[in-house]
């Protein structure tokens, strides 16, 4: 591989797509501008997020997992990316394990490659305290009300390592994602911006969901967004423990046993092609 070139793998988790870089067998040191260029769907490869696989020096994890949004921002967590991470390190022979502890900017997650090829991930315990989301509010509430784009909007706020606001809508197909998504993403109540989920409850075990992602816009799927939506539905008494989340790109299985418990996410991870990046 020549100087200024990087080998990459293009992957997706139910349509949420990624450029994955092996940062162990090659030196990956990208500027924000370079990430934006790679993520560009005309001038680059195109992806929602760029993922970097790194060695991790400590005992508690085998790898470090770094996540960059299409706008070049580095973020704390990515659920669909975590499943692709597991598939990548296993298929690339970087591990022979099928239970893989990985360190992220928001802490340890554990990836489990299932016999059927799907990946189950312990996404950690959701966080509701405003200062930990972060979200500016005098006190913690199940639902918050803010004026967004000229209308009063109710939403839940929760962190899955990354910040999420979840609104309940009657029909995701007609939800004002393009208006409320960016307006809430950049609302001053969220000092580090926020991912915005639009949830339609179909039953106590099934929801539809669209997500306007921080730093990437609306995606076909958002793993942490699916976790956040189920948690928001549960704390409002709308959902049971095991929920199928139907996103535009496909379905995820989410399980949450309640306060203080981790959220489990199960779904597919696909490799589409491999290539060489010229920086
Ligand atoms: N846009 C997110 C990161 C990617 C999350 C999403 N792709 C997922 O599958 O969880 C954020 O800024 O926190």
Describe this entry's structure for a reader.
It contains four helices and 18 strands. With 279 residues, it is of the alpha+beta class. It has an 18-stranded mixed sheet that branches. Bound molecules: 2,6-diaminopimelic acid (API). Residues 16, 48-49, 67, 69, 75, 78-81, 162, 195, 213-216, 219, 222-225 line the site of 2,6-diaminopimelic acid.
List the helices and strands and how they pair.
Elements: E1 5-13, E2 16-22, H1 32-39, E3 49-55, E4 63-69, E5 74-75, H2 79-91, E6 99-104, E7 107-113, E8 119-122, E9 144-148, E10 151-159, E11 163-168, H3 177-185, E12 195-203, E13 206-213, E14 217-219, H4 223-235, E15 242-247, E16 250-256, E17 263-267, E18 270-278
Parallel strand pairs: 2-3, 4-6, 11-12, 13-15
Antiparallel strand pairs: 1-2, 1-18, 3-4, 4-5, 6-7, 7-8, 8-17, 9-10, 10-11, 12-13, 13-14, 15-16, 16-17
